[in-house]
Every structure is written in structure tokens, then in C-alpha cells.
Amino acid sequence: MATESGERRTLQAGAAQLGVPLDEAQLLQLTRLLDELQQWSAAYNLTALTDRQAMLTHHLLDSLSAAVALRGTRIADVGTGAGFPGLPLAIARPELSFTLIDSTAKKIRFVAHAVRSLGLRNVTPLHARMEVLPAQRFDTVIARAVAALPDLVRTAGGLCEEDGCLLAMKGRYPADEVGALPDSWSLRDTQVVEVPGLNAERHLLTLERVRLAPA
């Protein structure tokens, strides 16, 4: 019990540093998500991380670092893996609608299980390949270390509404990838993110379509 309350305090304090307020119900959901991830990962190897504290910082807090950058109400998380960043973001932002997409069946099965176990009514898991994404359109498409930026806009850019954005969560600033973006997309914003407890570089890049001036 003391460990659980300590985790919740760590989560609450870390999320607050990221500008994400969490209430007790949300903190309980996040720690339950850790429980489910640990149990499933032991059997199905969902994540390379085995230490619970590392999961808390590398998966939960790292995911929450993107919460303040989301636009609109319809969010797609492409290449979500075991549900990151989508599941923590859906817990933190219950007023938004999330579609979590991945091509690995066992990982989407875990996402679906977590959605049921945590009672997340704002999450839709979707088993699909990047090359065959749905015809839906979203206000924000987010990807956490999924692909190089030129490949990401080519495969996932079509999911964005015309005035939507593609949010790329990266480690080091990908200067070469930014320089290789197609002319139809531009980098509109870069945030240097400091994730509490995570001693690693993090950058949050917002990409938008280039709008041509009317003739």
C-alpha cells in the first residue's frame, strides 16, 4: 500500500511538472495500467522494460509529456505498441477521443484488455498496418519514436484533417529528418521536453501541411 501511494505521489508530482493535473481516479487508473502492463509483459514480452519505476517514467510520464500539445478532440496514436502514449493520454484527457493503431496483434490485444479493465470509454483499439490505415481523419496524429519524419508523413499524414497536425515524439532533435521533409509538410513547432526522472533528451515536434496561398 505504501508503495502504491508512493507511485501515485510520484506520478502526480511528475505530471504536474509537465502541466498535466491528475485527480485520484486518474492516478489509480495509471497505476492499474502499470499492473496490467507488468503482468502481460511477463507473458507476452510487450516491452523491453521490466523495472516498474522505469515503466513509470519511460512509459507513463514520457507519454503524458505530450498532453498539452494535443489539438482538437479526435486523436490517433499510430504505432501505439502496448498503448503508449495513447493510453496515459486518454486517462489524462478523458474529454478527447483516441484511436490507438498498431500492426502487432498481441499488443493491440493488450490495449483492448486495458481499455476494458480500466473502463476507458474514449479509446478505440485498431489492428492495422501503417501502409493500410483507415479512411478516418483526426485533429492530431501522434507517433512516439515510430519512424523517420519523411516516412511518418508519407504513411500517417493522410490521417490528419486538412488543418490538423502530426505530433512526433522524438529523443534527440532529428535535424536530418526535418531537412528531408517533403515540401508539402513543414515543422511548425519544436518543444524541448524534460520528463521528470528521465535522464534523456526528448523533443516534441509539431508538423503541419503547407497551405498554398490562393492564386
Q: Tally the helices.
A: 7
What is the C-alpha radius of gyration, as a whole number of Å?
Answer: 17 Å
Which range does the strand content fall in? 15-25%
Provide the low-confidence segments as ranges: none
N-to-C series of helices and strands: HHHEHEHEEHEHEE
- The CATH H-level superfamily is Vaccinia Virus protein VP39
Query: What is the highest CATH level, the class?
Result: Alpha Beta
Rough shape?
A: globular
The separation of the N and C termini measures 65 Å
Number of strands: 7
Main sheet summary: 7 strands, mixed
Secondary-structure arrangement, i.e. CATH architecture: 3-Layer(aba) Sandwich
In order across it, which strands form the biggest sheet?
3-2-1-4-5-7-6
Q: Determine the fraction of residues in helical runs and give it as a percent range.
A: 25-40%
Average pLDDT works out at 94
- Tell me the domain tally: 1
What structural category characterises the helix and strand content? alpha/beta
What is the CATH topology?
A: Rossmann fold
